[in-house]
Amino acid sequence: MSLNTKIIYGTAWKKEQTTGLVVKAVLNGFRAIDMIQPVNRSTIVGAALLELQEKHNIKREDIFLQTKYTPIGGQDRTKPLPYNPSDSVPNQILASIQKSLSNLHTTYLDSYLLHSPLPTIGQTLEAWKILMQLQDEGKVRLIGVSNTYDVRVLAALQKVRKVQVVQNRWYEGNEWDQAVVGYCKENGIMYQSFWTLSGSPSLLTHPALLTLAKNSNMTEPQAVYKLAQLEGIIPLSGTTDETHMRQDVAVEKLSFASDDVEGQLSTVRDFISG
C-alpha cells in the first residue's frame, strides 16, 4: 500500500510500552507506524501487529510499516545489534532488513529508510543501491532517507533512483528545514516531520496560530499539525495519550475557520519562512 494517511505514529523512545501504545494508536485511528532500530526493536511492534490481527481483525496490509537501517554510529551497542558491525554496509543492510521482516511477521515493508547519510557520499550511494535492490525484489515499497539536511545528498541519490521519502526534524531549530522541504515539493518526494510539536514552542504560541486554533475549535497541537499538512508535510505523532491520539488522527478532516483564514495563515507562513 502507499501511504494514504496524513499522520504517522512514531514509536521512538517508548521502550517496553511500545506494544501497548502501538495497539492503542491503531485502535484510535492511526494506520501508519514508524520505527527506529536502536531503541525500538521490531519484535515489540511485531507483537502489537499480531495482537491487532488476532484480537481486532486489523490485518498487516491495513498498516503502513516504516523502519530504517541505522549505521553503527547510531546504534546502542549495549543492546543486541541487527547485524554484524564488522560486515560491509551492504551486508549490514541485508541482515538488518531480514531481521525486521522476521520480527514484524511480514514479507515486505511499506517504506525503508537510511536512518542518516553515511560518512561519505560514496558510502551513502553504496547503501542506497542496496535499498534499490530490496525495492526491485519487492521487499520494500518505498525507499528514502532520514536526518538528511543537505539537498546535495538528495540530488546525488536522485541521479541513481528517485528518493520517495524524506523524514527530518521540522522545527524552529533548523528554520523548519526550508531548503529540503522545498526540494521535496519540487520533486514529488513525501516529506515526513518529527519534533513537529516539541521543537517549536514559539509556533505553538504564535498569536496567528492561536487565533486559527480558537476560531476553528482546534487545540494548538492540532493547528500545528494542520498547518504542516497544508504545507504537504506528514507529521509524526508520538503521543502516549489516547485522547491526543484521537485528536491527532482527526486533524486530517478538520479545516481552519476564521474571518481571515488566509491572512492568519499568511502570517504564520511568513513567521516560518523568516
Automatic annotation (TrEMBL):
User: InterPro entries given for it?
Assistant: AKR (IPR020471), NAD(P)_OxRdtase_dom_sf (IPR036812), NADP_OxRdtase_dom (IPR023210)
Cited SUPFAM superfamilies: NAD(P)-linked oxidoreductase
The cross-references to Pfam families, in alphabetical order and at most eight, read: Aldo_ket_red
NADP-dependent oxidoreductase domain spans which residues? 13-199
Keywords from the named record: NADP, Oxidoreductase
Superkingdom in the source lineage: Eukaryota
Q: Name one GO molecular function term.
A: oxidoreductase activity, acting on the CH-OH group of donors, NAD or NADP as acceptor
Q: Which family does it belong to?
A: Belongs to the aldo/keto reductase family.
Task: Please report the name of this protein according to its UniProt entry.
Answer: NADP-dependent oxidoreductase domain-containing protein
Please name the source species: Agrocybe chaxingu
